[in-house]
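Bug report

Summary: structure tokens for Ribosome production factor 2 homolog differ between web form and batch submission.
Environment: batch mode, default settings.
Steps: 1) Submit the sequence below via batch. 2) Compare with the web form result.

Sequence submitted:
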Amino acid sequence: MLRAVKPRTAAGKRAMRKREPQLVEGAKPAVFMKGTNTSQLVTAIFRDLYSLKRPDAVLMSKRNEVRPFEDPRSLEFFSQKNDAALFVLANHSKKRPHNLVFARMFDYQLLDMIEIGVERGTPMEMFKGAKPGVGHRPLILFSGDCWDSTDELRTFKSILLDMYRGTNSMDGVDLAGLEHVICMTAIDSTKVYLRTYTIQLKKSGTKLPRVELEEMGPSCEWVVRRHRAADADAWKAATKVPKELKTKTVKNIERNAMGDQVGRIHMEKQDFDKMQTRKMKGLKRGPNEDEDEEDAEDDIPAFAKKARINME
């Protein structure tokens, strides 16, 4: 394994500081590498997946004898050397033809991985039309009810999201900046279809354009093979949220289904007799008002007083 080197220059210190954990992580870099033997089909799909990931990807030209399911130390070595968190390995054998291995690292240690076989595929170069530019973030669509049915598909979905979602800090979406869509459909628990489309914005006569999708490739059918799930302790450490990013909960304040903020106020029982109201000078009783009320009582006839007493 690589030994820890203490930086001696300012550039070396900045490079080491970039490798340290950040509160807001950028796009996760990925390493695309080939095994000792590959086929023409898996190589074409492998290069198209690399082109969709650029510029946050490293393509290794040399072949490497890597067997991640038997010995993951080689992946951990390349992860520390390239400061990469994701790996895509292409290989081909009689037992597992047209094979792709998607692996994810945490702290330069293997977290989880899944092995996918390419049954059929059409590379990007076979499709006519414009291709998206380098660095554009795609729209990712997972179709089908089987994505949450098995641990293999849940792991595969999580790895694909980490690979192609880019940075997390984004305030809005520019409609003109959306150029392509990655659509993955789970037919059953073992088979997944991959389709990639370019987004065409055309005139519609209104402010909103008419959106059309044109297939650009790659297009392939995947079958799920071997799978290695993440360890419980390693997964807990990898998904831990820093204290600085945790949202502070406020008591008695929540949001309803429409997203509106709703608050709850707790008050003690009020005694209206002791409540202090606003005093107005015009409503204040004077000494003359009491004498006027007594004179008014004397002017009332006796039969009216007797009737009022009976009513009371």
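Above is the batch result. After comparison, the two runs are identical; trailing whitespace caused the diff. The mean pLDDT is 84. DSSP finds seven helices and twelve strands in the chain.
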